[in-house]
Amino acid sequence: MSDGASPRRAAVVIGGGMTGMLAASVLAEHADVTVLERDVLPEGPAPRKGLPQARHIHILWSGGVKALDDLLPGVVDRLVAQGAWRAGIMTDLVSKAPSGQWFRRFARSSHVSLMCSRDLLDAVVRARVLEDPRITVRARTESLGLEGTKERVTGVRMRSGERTTTLRADLVVDASGRTSRAPVWLRELGHPQVVERTVDAGLVYASRVYRAPRGAVGGFPIINVQANPRRAPGRAGGIAPVEGDRWLVTVSGTRGGEPTTDNDAFLPFARTLPHPLIAELLVDAEPLTDVVITRSTANRRRYYEKSATWPEGFVVLGDAVAGYNPVYGHGISACAQSVVALREVLADRGLQAPGAARRVQKAAARPVDCAWSLAVGQDLFYPGAVEQPPTRLERALAAFVDRAVDAGSRNPRAQRALLDVMCMEASPAGLLRPGMLAAMLFGRKLPPLAGPPLTAAEWKAAVAGPPLVRED
Q1: Which domains does the chain have, with CATH numbers?
Q2: What φ, ψ does residue 168 adopt, rounded to 5°?
Q3: C-alpha to C-alpha distances, 52 to 47, 119, 131, 204, 360, nearest whole angstrom
Q4: Phi and psi for 352 in degrees, rounded to 5?
Q5: Which tens digit of pLDDT belongs to each residue from 4-37?
Q6: What angle do CA 421, 218, 110 make, to 5 degrees?
Q7: What is the model's pTM?
Q8: Distance, first Cα to last Cα, the chain
């Protein structure tokens, strides 16, 4: 059912970040859209006050790339034209798994991630969305609460400067991120407390931008050294070649092993990771910025889809539903896939059909479930992450995933199945498919790599000296 020739509806999106912009692009097919944003959105690629995590490595996995290009056709090409690049997973990725294995870089890849700075990603998406005249942004505007009844939300109370007003809407989408006040607003309307869960590994992120070594400009692989949650403190790091011939370098550590803002301590900290590769690659790299840190990295989930009651005319999406430990890089992909779910429900049911908002909430929970499982399946094992230790079932599942990772690091067929899940093109249940189980149990496996699969040519391009490691 569609809105047909009925008068234009009105929709409000709370938050002008990635989720908010993508949601606005979908809603514009059904209504005139107003985006309420606390800050002033930059004109181009620049830091945004409300997004401190933008200074660290971001990756859009292939499931997210497909969702983004599905929502905004041509936007990925725009990003590439401005310096982003399509990286083959695993061909353009040197990665050490949490369980210790180095993934082989097989010759072909069916999974492609998009690599660039978060500032560029947001700017290009924002510019593309705001080309639509049906979408208006109200900057420096704070959302105070929902208007309506327990049965239906009819608008948003907002404050701009000293003025407080109400904006009517047929549908309100809360895309305000981790600071969302939706649980409070729903209680004010008479709904029960939303069930929440937190898994906090105590991770601290530290990042610094470097000028890429001259020989490593263009085509240098992503470097990813993951932490082992069973050996606390967990330390990890990565190098992401981004636009402007720069390397965005992020290191992280959990409780008792956190990095600091000390510039002189950044490289020594990188040497304490499960492998010193990142530190060795930075020996001749020129730092362009000071070190910046972020501490808001806990996995926090609100189970709106399980609420006993839900009002018509209100939807919560993105980090307002679930925020993840950013080290796994699934947040933006889950957001884009959730907005695809919004589009599909609205195309089928229309903006104001009875039960449409609840249907969106349930559909949007599916990619959230995937990203959540991938994150907390590791973070549960850090000391202090949860009040109760991992259950026997959670330990068994983690052991199974370790076996799947081992198979994926040494068998191309198993790797494809594993990447389907890691890249959010399949649910974690995909690891239980017969083909994956056969590859794990009976498939031919190459011997584990002794070191990171960085070629001698790549090493020479980045470092003036003999190679620390070479690909077998």
Answers
A1: 9-58+119-197+298-376 (3.50.50.60), 89-117+200-296+451-462 (3.30.9), 392-441 (no CATH)
A2: -70, 145
A3: 8, 11, 26, 13, 29
A4: -120, 15
A5: 445 689 999 999 999 999 999 999 999 999 999 9
A6: 25
A7: 0.91
A8: 58
